[in-house]
Design brief:
411 residues; 12 helices; four-stranded antiparallel beta sheet; Beta-lactamase; alpha+beta; six-stranded antiparallel beta sheet
């Protein structure tokens, strides 16, 4: 039996029973996941087992504005849709002023299709923290994580704040690749007890708060904090306190083993409209149907960069000063960088940005939320992060007295 088959068989067995896996089964599951990852060039996408994430009981489709009444010109919407189609997208949605202005699904994708989030889950961790703050489960963004991960008390990790989990300034090891099965970067992602490794085995390399370092592990810690603070499963908290109140359909999330810890930094599936509704929630300052789900001012904090990385806020990427190519790692680190062919037409725009160019753009100044989800664009397309939002903002049918936002400043 090959490694991938072993993953599915063992994970399927774990998902079908509450009987704990033996140490030999846990070791076999880790080995199978690791081998599958190495064979795929360091990429693991066979998420199993999955745990249900509840959502709204009877989610209703978002309203769609007739084509002849859109607030964005038809040619701009068509050009944006064509760009999304050329990038092998699965879904392209545009929301403005209370309705969808465009809703395109490509190939076999429908409005009900569960789409893998990849790192769109990271902004969701920030929204979940904001909801926990509003409910009183957490005291402050500046509360030490060690108040909940008590194993860190009296250690150098004791000064890591909840804020640092969201703005990637924990000082913990940054995202990297290793072919060593015992390296902590692999254990905190693939191990069927990855939470133990996150707490006990993931290295601190810099004083907390002093360096930006993007990593899945940093976001994965949010699930531990929220489960301990709320005494709820991470999936249940997300479903009941975030998705259900905004009318979003639920989905699934990868857990390290049946009944184990959720991977909060990646790997949740939801329909496209559910992802869009999260952007709409932020567009509306954390309010839905007159109810405040997120604390006043929380979205402003999300959309504000840090001195260590002016392009990253709390789980979301922010416009900041214009750079033609922006990476995901620390500003001074090597690695792939995404193109921005021109400054954003809204200097305060922010976005969810996940692997394979999963993007949700939020322009509060113009009332636009735009989503592109799908597989990695073909090599013939050098994905341009500024293309879609600029087409849409530039295509607004301006009303008398309407003032468009200031563009992103150049250095």
């Amino acid at each position: 039996m090959n490694a991938l088959a072993s993953v599915l068989v063992i994970a399927g067995m774990a998902a079908a029973t509450t009987t704990p896996l033996t140490s030999d089964e846990l070791a076999a599951l880790y080995r199978a996941r690791f081998e599958a990852t190495m064979k795929a060039g360091g990429i693991f996408t066979q998420y199993a087992p999955m745990e249900a994430v509840p959502g709204a009981t009877t989610p209703q489709p978002l309203p769609q504005r007739p084509a002849n009444t859109t607030t964005i010109r038809g040619d701009a919407l068509a050009a944006a849709s064509a760009y999304a189609a050329a990038a092998s997208s699965s879904a392209f949605l545009v929301w403005r002023h209370g309705a969808l202005e465009r809703a395109d699904y490509f190939g076999a994708t429908t409005a009900d299709t569960q789409l893998v989030s990849k790192s769109l889950s990271k902004p969701l961790t920030a929204i979940a923290v904001g909801r926990a703050l509003a409910l009183g489960h957490l005291r402050s963004l500046d509360t030490p994580v060690a108040d909940y991960i008590t194993e860190w008390r009296g250690t150098p990790k004791a000064t890591i704040l909840i804020r640092h989990l969201l703005d990637m300034r924990t000082g913990l090891l940054e995202q990297m690749f290793s072919a060593d099965p015992d390296h902590p970067i692999n254990r905190v992602y693939l191990d069927p007890d990855h939470g133990w490794h996150l707490i006990h085995n993931y290295p601190l390399l810099h004083p907390p708060g002093t360096r930006y370092g993007y990593s899945n592990a940093t976001s994965e810690l949010v699930a531990i904090v929220l489960e301990r603070a709320t005494r709820q499963r991470y999936a249940d908290f997300i479903g009941r306190e975030v998705l259900a109140p905004i009318g979003a359909a639920g989905g699934e999330i990868w857990v390290d083993r049946a009944g184990g810890l959720a991977h909060s930094g990646c790997c949740m599936t939801l329909p496209a409209e559910s992802w869009l509704r999260l952007g709409i929630l932020l567009l509306n300052d954390g309010m839905v149907n007159g109810e405040r789900l997120l604390p006043a001012g929380f979205v402003d904090q999300m959309a504000r960069g840090t001195p260590e990385n002016p392009h990253y806020g709390l789980g979301v990427w922010v416009a900041g000063p214009y750079v033609e190519r922006r990476g995901f790692g620390a500003p001074d680190s090597p690695g792939p960088k995404v193109l921005h062919s021109e400054p954003y037409l809204d200097r305060d725009l922010f976005l969810f940005d996940g692997n394979s160019n999963q993007t949700i753009y939020v322009s509060r100044a113009t009332g636009i939320v735009a989503l592109r989800l799908g597989p990695t664009p073909p090599k013939t397309v050098d994905w341009d992060n500024s293309k879609l939002p600029n087409l849409l903002i530039g295509g607004i049918r301006r009303q008398p007295g309407e003032v468009l936002p200031q563009p992103q400043p150049r250095p």
